[in-house]
Specification:
185 residues; alpha+beta; 2 domains; 19% strand; elongated
Amino acid sequence: MSNPHADTSAEQFPRLPLYAVSGLLLFSLVAVAVVRFGAPEAGVDGIAAEQLASQVVERQALIFRDLENGAVGVFDPASGKQLTTIEPGTNGFMRSTLRGLGRERMRRNLTPDEPFEIRILDNGRALLVDPAIDREVDLWAFGETNAMNFINLFNETQAILGGNRQQVASQSAAAAGSGDRADNN
């Protein structure tokens, strides 16, 4: 007797889509393994070896405080003097980056009056460093426009404090400009 429920046509799952999905999965795994374990130019936590070997050539310590009108005041840590103001509705990347680092300080019960540092490296890259939480933000990773906002702030505060750093912006743009160009504001 034959089984009335048995399908004698032996329908099979189409092989081409199965092979395509399997190949894509294998390719993805190999690509991740190469990037994660085999990229010789990658350093600690994905920081390029070039950046790890770079030297700081300029630095400016600054304190950032929220003001009552929604602006962010930029202060000299040595004198306590307000150097400039980041007005509300401007420099969105700068404000959100500082706010994110400030939130991490509050989470760790640290004082907001610890200075940040803007550092210019010999390769032209710019970093925002928060020594209080041991965090560095490579500003060029967020595009030239965003990095230049911090470099312009660096130049402005240097000029107010008597430094002669007006060439930093053009040197940094030329040196680091060959990298990321995703301008986010």
